[in-house]
Amino acid sequence: MVTLTACVLDFRAMIKLTVREVAQAKGFDNASALAPATGIHPTSMYRIWNGKATRIDLDTLDKLCNTLQVPAGLLITHVAISDSGAKSSGRRKSR
Description:
About 35% of the residues lie in helices and about 20% in strands. It is α+β, with helices and mostly antiparallel strands and about 100 residues long.
């Protein structure tokens, strides 16, 4: 029996909201100022503003886009995260 171990890099991705940066560039100082302008509940806006939101509805994204007058792609960025080192896939191949 022959055992093969493959080396696999573990790549994960993260979606990051850039609402704070865009809003500040448009003159909104904080989440408290942006929430009423968008009609988004203040608690939800704080999560979005501080990068703590784990999901966002399309309706919410649309409100942000309309208020800030930017396309959705400007409010979202994709960041690839790589673990240091390699992990074994644990595959075995027999003869």
